[in-house]
Amino acid sequence: MVTRHVPIQARVACVGSLSARHYADRVSLSSWSALLAACLLISFTPGAGAIYTMSNAINVGHRRTIWGVLGLQAALIIQLAIVAAGLGVVVAGSPTAFAVIRYLGAAYLVYLGIRQILRTPVAATDTVVGDTPQSAGSLFVRGVGVNLLNPKAIVFFLAFIPGFVKPEHGFVTQYAMIGATIVAVDVAVMWLFFAVVGRGFARLTGTVTGQRRLNRIFGALFIGVGILLAVV
Fold first, then answer.
1. A Pfam family in this protein (predicted)?
2. Separation of alpha carbons 32 and 35, rounded Å
3. Dist CA 149 CA 146 (whole Å)
4. Which residues contact 132 (CB under 8 A, 6 or more apart)?
5. What is the rounded distance in angstroms from the CA atom of residue 198 to the CA atom of residue 160?
6. In this predicted structure, what is the pLDDT of residue 122?
7. CA-CA distance, 186 to 73, in Å (whole number)?
8. Which end of the chain, C or N, has fewer beta carbons within 10 A?
9. Is residue 23 part of a domain?
10. How far apart are alpha carbons 184 and 177 in whole angstroms?
11. Which domain covers residue 186, as residue numbers?
12. Rounded to two decimals, what is the model's pTM?
C-alpha cells in the first residue's frame, strides 16, 4: 500500500479553507437571523398594510383576506426589485420623483379612508356580516396600491437591505433569499395576526350602528396614515 505524503502547507491550506467556509456559513446564518428579527419587528409595526388587512378581515372574512395580503407582498417584491436594479437610488435622489410618489400614495390612502367611511352598512338579516362580496382581484389590486405607492418603503429598503448583502456572494441568490424572508414573515404576520385581530372586531358588526362605527374608525386610520405619509 502506497502512502501519499501531503505537504504540511497543503494540509494547513485545506484546513484554512474549510475554516473560512465554516466561518462564512456562520456569518450567513447570523445575518439571516438578524434579517428575520428585523422583518418580524417591521411587520408587527402597525401601518397602512396592517390597517388594510384588519379592515378586509371585517368586511370579507379571514379566509378571503389572503388576497389583499398577497397584493401587499406583490408590492414589496416590486419595491425590492426596484432597489436591486438601482432605480431606488434614482427615486431617493430625485425630490420630484419622491414627492410625486409620496403624494400619490397619501392620496390613495385618504381615498381608501373616505371609501371606508362612506361604506353602506349591511343589515345582518340581509347577508352574513363579514362576507361582503368583493372579488379576489379587487382585494389584490388595492393591496398592491397600499404598499406600492409608498416611496418611503423604497428608501427604507435602500438603507436596510445593503447590510444583509455580501459582495463576495451571489447577488441574485441573496436578494432572492432576502425577498423570500420578507414575504414569508409579512404573510404570516398579516394573515395570522392582524387578520385575526381584525376578525375579532366582527362581533361588533352585527348591527348597522356597529358597522358604521368601525367604518369610521378604520376610515380615520387610513386617512391619518395618508396624512402622515404626506407630511412626515
1. LysE
2. 5
3. 6
4. 59, 60, 122
5. 29
6. 63
7. 8
8. N
9. yes
10. 10
11. 8-231
12. 0.72
